[in-house]
Amino acid sequence: MVVLNKIYTRTGDDGTTALGTGERRKKYDLRVAAYGTLDETNAAIGIARLHTAGESALHESLARIQNDLFDVGADLTTPGKGKGPGGARLTVTAAQVTWLEREIDRLNGELAPLRSFILPGGFAAAAYLHLARTICRRAERLIAELKDRPGETVTPEVLQYVNRLSDYLFVAARCANDKGARDVLWQPGRNR
């Protein structure tokens, strides 16, 4: 477990931060950017949850995802086969990816098929879930780039989880929009 007795340490004053292995990296390092962007995703989900309290199933699923995102971040902070300070390496599992897939299928089963692209909007929860989705897609792009960078490693389940998460957030946004009834549809060429 993490113990945070002191919030500021001054160790990052030189523009570096520590990975879970203790290795120091620049704060603009691609790996740091990837898990930092997942943190942004998590924060946007937190805002969405302020508006989903009345929808217990969606609210609880989002809470689980917020916790899982810390697992994804922990996995990214320990590259290769590196171990964390406690000796164990926390990784994302195939079971976490499968759970997301089941949730996508469950939610999508309640929705009418799409006949147009959707503009972010509708109810507040949906708009914030769309925001979280776009941040998640940015994280996915950074993680994919990190995976392809020589000398770097990414657990396959990390990329799978983040890819599924952006799909989940899209479907969850539709559900939060009164099961799609309040979706804002794109009208191609409307303003020409």
Key structural traits:
192 residues, two-stranded antiparallel sheet, two-stranded antiparallel ribbon, mainly alpha, 5 helices, single chain, Hypothetical Protein Ta1238, Chain: A
Written account of the structure:
The model has no long low-confidence stretch (mean pLDDT 90). The chain contains 5 helices and 4 strands; from the N terminus they run E-E-H-H-H-E-H-H-E. By secondary structure, the chain is mainly α. The chain has a two-stranded antiparallel sheet. Strands 3-4 form a two-stranded antiparallel sheet. The chain is 54% helix and 5% strand. It has a single domain, classed as Hypothetical Protein Ta1238, Chain: A.
Overall, the morphology is elongated
- Give the name of the CATH superfamily: Cobalamin adenosyltransferase-like
What percentage of residues falls in helices of 4 or more residues? 40-55%
| DSSP strand count | 4
CATH architecture: Up-down Bundle
Number of helices: 5
Q: Which series of helices and strands comes N to C?
A: EEHHHEHHE
What are the low-pLDDT stretches, counting only 5+ consecutive residues below 50?
A: none
CATH topology (level 3) name: Hypothetical Protein Ta1238, Chain: A
- Whole-angstrom Rg: 18 Å
Beta-sheet strand percentage?
Answer: 5-15%
